[in-house]
Design a protein that fits this description.
By secondary structure, the chain is an alpha/beta fold. It contains 29 helices and 19 strands. Among the domains are: about 140 residues, 3-Layer(aba) Sandwich (Rossmann fold); about 170 residues, no CATH class. The strands form seven sheets. A five-stranded parallel sheet has the order 6-9-10-5-11, sandwiched between helices. A four-stranded mixed sheet has the order 3-2-1-8. Strands 4-7 form a two-stranded antiparallel sheet. β1 and β2 form a beta hairpin.
Length: about 800
């Protein structure tokens, strides 16, 4: 149901509450107060297709964007037929002011220019008509457009270049030729479609030239452009092949004839002399003579009745008892030459109060005249729409596209006369009115887009004052209401300007939630335009602000849009998020492959990187427990000799010990080794059922390697050297004998250097061992793969076992356990 027009079903018996009488009568108050919250009005959402995206304009939480499903994709746009083109051309013209129709002024001294322009356009040439403001360019364009109706297959398209870029004009040309409601094609398709347009494009108030104009002309090779611009606009490039036609002022005779047409009578000698001086001063601009004619009409009214403008607040300098002539009426002097050259203040002073109030709003809005339908609400007079007719008759306004704005030079003249004293208050009043109007459900987005110039002008005035405009600045309210309407009306140039103005206003006012909304919308707009980096930055800013405010719905909308940005850019989202926005572990990290023999226990598992930059990242070297940089697989397997000896010292020491014991047992079969090695034995009955095993080292890193039957792996320690995990002293790391016969060593005992041992150690370096180790050696501890070492040279003589008797009897000889240590 329409909330403003309630139907009979809203008053049925089942819809009445206790406070509604059954048979009419007054409404009585409810028995108990209503503590429920009022139901908010439904937000106006619009769905449209832009490229391959489906955009849902949501004015509450922010617009939502997703890939357009195949069933939602519109077909290829088709062109308007002749009847539709006529209706659209009528909509592009400014509305007629209320009241009697004003006489149409003739086009003097322009016939030659008119024929030349039509001739060039008929041959497919583009022409730029250059003339100063007030030279009558718009009137000439109207005549040429009527002459070119049957030249091009797509007819004549009227566009306005006022505050429009080349991209805006291309989309407006597409909308004027093709029937594509709620569809904004992407750049490629749009250029393909406008490439096929064959029309005469009449473009007034062009504000750019050079490369932008070349881009516009290259995109539409089948169109002939008639461009109207002022001399201060950049000229077309030399390669554009645009014809130049300069439009100057009128001659003296034509200027006097135009003045007579405006006044509606023949000029007197004094008036003709005054008009001649005005022609010399204004260089024959038609606008000046149209305004001068309005001054003479007002003079005629004063001569008939000096009090004719008293009701408008104007008091003429002529006294009431001025001399009266039956033929000429009251004696009212001619305006001075200065008043004729700058007549805005004098003309405005003789207008109605509504017209003067309209001029004040126009000055506050930078020259933009609000639509006549808004004047009653702004001015406070229900008949204020008639003020537009007064302004048009006084030549104080001129048509710009489908709207009106102050004529050239009028803004400065009115500001000097005091019409700009209440600019801020007028702009705030206009902003609050437009905010209510743009957000009303009954107002279509096309109507809001047509009034975009006035809305943006109000924003330009109020944004710098947002910090001092209270808790809810009018600029933020206007931008919040107008931006979704601009988006739904496909006026994306105005949409971007409104969003940027609203974001700045919200930042100055400290409204974090509103600032987050504008950042979100700017990110959506950038995504639609293919600017992924800017879209990512805006969306991340919006998500951060909404996350601080605990705005769950807005954060979800931002994450969905950010996921689409990541999908379009082909990369991962920052912060370890998936395409749906959830946080997950870094699955893109690829671990380094372990060595074949396994990773040593001293090497910790490397932590995965926080954020994977590429799909396959370089393996991270493992970290050594206890500090230091761990060797890579190359350094473990095929390093230098020093690293080989350090890495396999424990295993090599056990192998040498096993060789010595085995050779001694096999060479003296008549004397068992147990009878000889009976002093300070290092192997004793263990706790596990009397097994013979090596004594276990006490402490960390100070126990030597065990016998071949030991199952405990040796601790590689630092840099792969056994026994150095905690003890930095390298004296016992190479398998040198120890003086502690028990196999343990106190922490305070000094470590003896190998060079001060008085006896020869039974074990030597692998390169100096005269015997070849047996094939079957005790199993080394389970560690990483030992490095390949060079075997000792083979000898032809049988190995000679060491003299165990002398060794055992020597008081200082090291025991087997000492050797192990």
């Amino acid at each position: 149901m329409d909330p403003t027009n309630r139907g009979p079903e809203d008053f049925s018996e089942d819809r009445r509450d206790d406070s509604t009488p059954a048979h009419g009568g007054s409404r009585r108050p409810p028995v108990s107060p209503d503590f429920g919250q009022p139901v908010p009005a439904l937000a106006r959402t619009v769905q449209l297709v832009s490229g391959d995206h489906l955009l849902t304009v949501n004015p509450v939480d922010g617009s939502e964007i997703e890939p357009c499903p195949p069933g939602e994709r519109p077909g290829r746009p088709v062109k308007h037929d002749a009847a539709e083109r006529i209706e659209l051309a009528r909509a592009t013209r400014p509305p007629l002011p209320p009241g009697p129709a004003l006489p149409r002024l003739p086009l003097l001294e322009r016939q030659e220019d008119r024929e030349r322009l039509v001739r060039l356009l008929a041959r497919g040439r583009s022409v730029r008509l250059t003339g100063p403001s007030g030279s009558g360019r718009t009137a000439l364009l109207d005549q040429v457009a009527e002459d070119c109706l049957g030249i091009a297959p797509d007819g004549v398209v009227r566009l306005s270049g006022h505050r429009r870029s080349a991209d805006d004009l291309l989309h407006e040309l597409f909308g004027a030729v093709y029937n594509a409601p709620l569809h904004r094609p992407d750049r490629a398709l749009m250029r393909e479609l406008v490439y096929e347009v064959g029309a005469v494009v009449v473009l007034d108030d062009l504000e750019f030239g050079g490369a932008q104009l070349d881009e516009l002309l290259e995109a539409t090779p089948e169109c002939a452009f008639l461009l109207a611009a002022t001399p201060d606009v950049a000229a077309p490039s030399a390669d554009s092949h645009v014809e130049e036609v300069f439009l100057g002022g009128l001659g003296r005779g034509s200027s006097l004839e135009l003045l007579e047409r405006v006044v509606g009578r023949v000029l007197t000698d004094d008036e003709a002399q005054w008009a001649g001086d005005l022609w010399f001063e204004s260089e024959g601009l038609p606008l000046r003579f149209a305004q001068a004619g309005a001054l003479l009409r007002q003079r005629d009214q004063l001569r008939a009745d000096p009090n004719v403008f008293d009701e408008h607040g104007f008091f003429s300098d002529a006294p009431v008892d001025a001399p009266f002539d039956s033929a000429d009426g009251y004696d009212v002097p001619l305006p001075s030459l200065a008043e004729g050259a700058a007549p805005a203040a004098l003309l405005a002073s003789r207008l109605s109060g509504s017209a003067r109030a309209t001029l004040r709003f126009a000055v506050a809005l930078g020259g933009e005249i609000p639509h006549q339908a808004h004047l009653p609400a702004l001015v406070g007079d229900q008949h204020a729409d008639a003020a537009l007719a007064e302004l048009v008759a006084a030549a104080l306004v001129t048509a710009v596209g489908a709207r009106y704005r102050l004529a050239a030079g009028v803004q400065v003249q009115l500001e000097a006369a005091g019409f700009g004293d209440e600019t801020v208050e007028r702009a705030r009043t206009a902003a609050l009115h437009y905010a209510w109007w743009a957000g009303h459900p009954s107002v279509g987005p096309e109507r809001v887009a047509a009034e975009s110039d006035a809305l943006l002008a109000a924003l330009a005035v109020l944004v710098p004052l947002s910090a001092d405009d209270g808790e809810s600045p009018a600029s933020v309210e206007l931008a919040r209401a107008a931006a979704p309407a601009f988006a739904a009306g496909l006026a994306w140039g105005a949409w971007e300007r409104a969003l940027r103005s609203g974001q700045e206003a919200a930042r100055l006012a400290g409204l974090v939630s509103e600032e987050a909304y504008f950042h979100h919308e700017l990110g959506i707009l950038a995504l639609l335009e293919g600017q992924l980096d800017r879209a990512r930055a805006e969306l991340e800013a919006s998500i951060g602000l909404r996350g601080a405010l605990a705005d769950k719905r807005g954060t979800i909308a931002g994450r969905r849009a950010l996921a689409l940005v990541a999908d379009r850019s082909g990369g991962a989202l920052p912060g370890g998020r998936t395409a749906a926005g959830e946080e997950v572990p870094d699955a893109m990290y690829e671990e380094s492959q372990s060595p074949p023999g396994g990773v040593p226990a001293a090497y910790a598992q490397p932590e995965p990187p926080r954020e994977a930059e590429t799909l396959v990242s370089r393996p991270t070297p493992p970290t050594v427990i206890g500090g230091g940089k761990a060797p890579t697989r190359r350094s473990i397997v095929s390093g230098t000799r020093r690293n080989m000896v350090a890495a396999g010292a424990g295993a090599l020491l056990v192998a040498v010990l096993g060789t010595v014991v085995t050779l001694g047992a096999t060479s003296h079969k008549d004397q068992p080794p147990s009878d000889k090695v009976n002093t300070n034995p290092s192997a004793s009955a263990g706790e596990n059922g009397g097994e013979l095993g090596a004594d276990k080292a006490e402490g960390s890193g100070k126990g030597g390697g065990g016998s071949g039957t030991s199952s405990a792996p040796a601790d590689p320690g630092k840099d792969g050297i056994p026994g150095t995990a905690d003890d930095p002293t390298p004296s016992s790391s190479a398998g040198q004998p120890s003086d502690d016969p028990s196999g343990t060593k106190s922490p305070d005992a000094p470590t003896k250097s190998p060079t001060k041992n008085p006896t020869k150690s039974p074990t030597k370096s692998p390169t100096k061992t005269p015997t070849k180790p047996p094939t079957k050696s005790p199993t080394p501890p389970e560690t990483s793969e030992p490095p390949e070492t060079s075997e000792p040279p083979e000898t032809s003589e049988p190995p000679t076992p060491p003299d165990t008797t002398d060794t055992a009897s020597s008081p200082v000889a090291p025991s087997v356990s000492d050797t192990v240590m």
